[in-house]
Amino acid sequence: MKLFKRILVISVTAALSSLVSAQGSASDGGTDKVDIAKKLANPIADMISVPLQYEFSRGVGKTQGGSQQTLLFQPVMPFNLGGGDTFIVRPIVAGVREVSVQAANGQSFSGYGIASVTIESFYAPNTNSSWIWGIGPYAVSPSGNSGKFGSQQTGAGVTGVVLNRQGPWTYGLLGYQSWNMGGNPAFGTQNNLYGQPFIAFTTKNAFTYTVNMEAQYNYDTHRTSNPLYAGVSRLMVFDGVPLQLGAGPMYYVSNTPGGPSGWGARATATLVILK
């Protein structure tokens, strides 16, 4: 485990270091890297992207002695509705590995599996403004997991986002409201309210500095899981294909019983598919 984390940190650090020394032009082979980096900071941009997000968290379980690794696969697929209006679909598949996580009965668990499959969608009308917004249906399925990796309930609701693009800045709020649609509540429920305020600054060298907070409140436990993340990413172009790499620390300001706590880390790799 420690060796794996060291290799990951060294790899990401080396990649970002090489990017700093690389030529910092705003375009590469006709590709505007800064414009693409700004669009990646916008969750409802009219651009196909395929992000992979790795997250390492500690303090998991009854005694807070376990750890958790999460890999999110979350492609963004926009559909042009004409007149500048867009419909964005974002499916999210979460794979989880847990190590030495102690349950309420005192038994320790280590293993991996699929935590959930989520579908977020946004209808984003053309606002002819720097301010844009989107709203649409939300759904989450437990994917038949055993309860070791989260709720076994199905949830449905509504998701929305509002943001402003002002020069190098992108800032706004993304959120959803989910209600339980059935399933076993023993491992948590889907009666959740989620809010993610975010702010990003993109430089002329296609670096993006990001800060966000992902607060999820559960109506049944009356508790909030609230990780704060701050990171830096850089967009590169390889043979005409844009790729953004990023990493940064995170800290759980508050957590649900048995959930991650304290410090963690996140790394991302996002492939952009140009039309």
TrEMBL record:
<feature type="signal peptide">
    <location>
        <begin position="1"/>
        <end position="22"/>
    </location>
</feature>
<keyword id="KW-0732">Signal</keyword>
<protein>
    <recommendedName>
        <fullName>Transporter</fullName>
    </recommendedName>
</protein>
